[in-house]
Amino acid sequence: MATIDDIKSKIDIVDLVSEAGVKLRHAGRNYTGFCPFHDNKHTPAFVVWPESGTWRCFGQCNEGGDIFKFVMKRDGLDFKDALQKLADRAGVKIESLQREAPQVKEAHERLRLLLEDVLIYYRTHLFNNKEVLTYLREKRKINDTTIETFGLGYAPHGYDNLLKHFVPKGYTQQELIDVGLLTVREDDAQQIKRTNDKFRNRIMIPIRDETGKMAGFGARIVDPNDIPKFLNSPETPIFTKGHILYGLDRARKPIRMADQAVIVEGYLDVIALHQAGYENVVSPMGTALTEDQLRLLKKSTRRIVLALDPDTAGQKAVLHGLDAARSAMDREGELGFDARGLLRNEARLQADLRVASMPDDLDPDEIVARDKDEWKRLIENAKPIVTHVMDSLAAGQNLNDAKVKNQIAAQVLPLIEDLPNAMERDTYRQALARMLRVDESVLAGTQAQGPVVRHRPRAVDRSQRVVTPLVALNPTLRIESYCIGVLFRKPALLYRLDRKLQESGLSALAVEDFEYTDHQLIFGVIRLAVEQDEKDHHQYVMSHLPESINDVSLDLLAQTEQLDPVDDKLLEELLARFIDLRRANAMLNMNQLRFLQEDEQQQGGANLKTYQEQAMQFMRLLHSLDQAKRKLTLRRQE
Ligand SMILES: [Zn+2]
Q1: Ligand 1 geometric centre to CA of 591 (Å)
Q2: How remote is the CA of residue 10 from the centroid of ligand 1, in Å?
């Protein structure tokens, strides 16, 4: 999820507005209060819709927006500063903002270039090293095509290879340090840095981000006595472990095609599986899977299978010490492979998480080496995460023992309660009752006695609140996001859309058609793009977007990768969606105005006239929208 969407999801607009001193009164599904932006303390004209996270003043201001707009207006900030302010409040880090200044971008490009050069250097050393090549080919069963495809290499023995090779090529020692390839030994009085090559006598695996840009290296030992067995580049300006999934640059399309992503724990597992034809496989950078990584996947699929090595800490955490794993997770924002954490994310990301257990203490690469089809079966038989935990806890236990039953129930029930879907909860409760051979009603009593992890009180820390993405809850946001995404990808459609709207007696598309500030900003740039003719429209949009909305735009691009190639169809679709959006918006406002008018009549009626005028406008709008919609439907049926 883009940072901005993350912030939207984590901040409750009712809280935000209340804290700004607006007393809100519950009115149906909405809240009303006195508008903080204009001077009328007589009747409440300010309405907040918690579901869409938006607000509107029906009085003098006659405008509205989302949380960003509210803060911008209240504090007189621009979008970027409002974003920063709300990010702080939500406990969300905005890294893209700090990283995207043009000079910084250029420096990052140079670091990536350096990494590409180093990759070639390591590859040359690999093909000159018979022993390591033989190990890869024969022991790991990796063929030469795969070695090339994944850019494997070898870092030779020695401490100053990189300095000797790359400084004469025009790179600086500092750049080699910045990119994590040299470690600084000492920094003496003359300020001459003494450095060592970080990677020596190791198999080098280039790590790229999801768009294929070089980010760092993973390294595996050749000499079995070396430690540690695996070593990654340190965190650098272009390498954030929690934000990258190894192999995703190659796996993105296969994941989308299979509508499934498989997560394994080792880079060489990823490579072996891709070689065997299973290309929807990725791996996190260490053992812990972060929420950001799950979000990266979510752009392509919501069906995720965890293929866990049988002997890892992660697997153990699923079985034991759920409490400890969970509190550690809360602190670090990482999931590990803790079942409860994953469940919570399943709910938040609306993903389908399953666990495939590897048999016979084998790693994934050993399994495909043994029998290629076995992998397919294992993944097909992956169990939903709750079932996996249930079965694992029950394995080898005497299920006739009342104490054992009680223990298992106490551990599994809280997981079941975390499930978002009531039907699923029922199904699992029944399954648990069946497994333990007890009556379901008995289970209800067990939970309170067991060593259950209590949910934190919600008020303690906002950033820890369990939130469902606004997008998932709110259809308007989803449609809006789709529409702006299509226009973002194909700005040229905007002209044609405007014409279609006008042919239907409707006004051209305007900033007001979007409720959310980020969408409004993007729309503004798209509008400018189609009004100039010096640059290609899309290029213009890309180069004129405010940096603060970079991550939203990436999300939008990802969402709209599979558009209907026929522009005419897209256009019809867009037209229909915008009519729906306008219609939903008009209805919402009409209803609200009705309530406000009733209130107003009781209070004396200073605003009555403006409300009636607004209501008339919305009525007329609804009428033309309905006509346009009818015409569109008729045309579609022809
Ligand atoms: Zn107002």
Answers
A1: 18
A2: 25
CA angle (68, 74, 77) in 5-degree steps = 65
CATH number at residue 67: 3.90.580.10
Whether 467 is covered by a domain: the verdict is: no
Residue 81 sits in the same domain as residue 116: no
Task: Find the 64 Cα to ligand 1 centroid distance in Å.
Answer: 9
How many Å from the N-terminal Cα to the C-terminal Cα in the chain?
40
Between the CA of 516 and the centroid of ligand 1 the distance, in Å, is: 18
- 49: which strand partners? 54
Structural element, H or E, at residue 186: strand 182-187
* Domain match, 115 and 85 both: no
How far apart CA 252 and CA 432 sit, in angstroms, is 36
Which domain range does residue 605 map to? 472-637
Tell me: do 439 and 517 sit in the same domain. Answer: no
- Residue-wise pLDDT tens digits, 210-234: 888 999 999 999 988 888 888 999 9
Q: Please give the pLDDT value at position 176.
A: 95
Number of residues that this document lists for the chain:
638
For residue 205, list its beta bridge partners.
218
What is the distance in A from the centroid of ligand 1 to the CA of 63? 7
- What's the rounded Cα separation, in Å, for the pair 430 and 432? 5
Compute the distance between CA of residue 338 and CA of residue 353 in angstroms, rounded to an integer: 12
> For 91-230, where are the alpha helices, taking DSSP H only?
95-99, 102-127, 130-134, 144-149, 161-166, 173-178
CB atoms within 10 A of CB 249: 18
How high is the pLDDT of residue 201? 96
Q: pLDDT (tens digit, 9 = 90+) per residue, 3-36?
A: 788 888 888 898 899 988 898 888 777 889 999 9
Same domain for 435 and 484, yes or no, is no
Ion ligand 1: residues, CB < 5 A: 35, 37-38, 57, 59, 61
The rounded Å distance from CA 89 to ligand 1 centre is 25
Centre of ligand 1 to C-alpha 167, Å, is: 63
What's the CA-to-centroid distance between 41 and ligand 1, angstroms? 10
Whether residues 379 and 482 share a domain: the answer is no
When comparing pLDDT for 607 and 471, which is higher?
Answer: 607
* Ligand 1 centroid distance, CA of 47 (Å): 10
In a domain, 528, yes or no: yes
State in Å: Cα 587 to ligand 1 middle. Answer: 20
Please give the distance, rounded to the nearest whole angstrom, from the Cα atom of residue 474 to the centre of ligand 1.
Answer: 25
Calculate how far, in angstroms, residue 61's C-alpha sits from the geometric centre of ligand 1. Answer: 4
What are the tens digits of pLDDT across the range 30-81?
Answer: 889 999 998 877 778 899 988 888 999 988 888 899 999 999 988 888 888 8
Q: Report the separation in Å between the CA atom of 92 and the middle of ligand 1, taken as the mean of its atom positions.
A: 30
CATH code (residue 591):
1.10.860
Residues 117 and 210 in one domain: yes
Residue 248 lies in a domain: no
Q: Are residues 508 and 600 in the same domain?
A: yes
Ligand 1 centre to CA of 467 (Å) is 30
Q: Tell me whether residue 460 is in a domain.
A: no
Entry pTM: 0.57
Q: Look at the chain and report how many structural domains it folds into.
A: 4
CA distance 487 to 556: 10
> Distances in Å between the alpha carbon of 155 and those of 181, 224, 229?
11, 16, 14
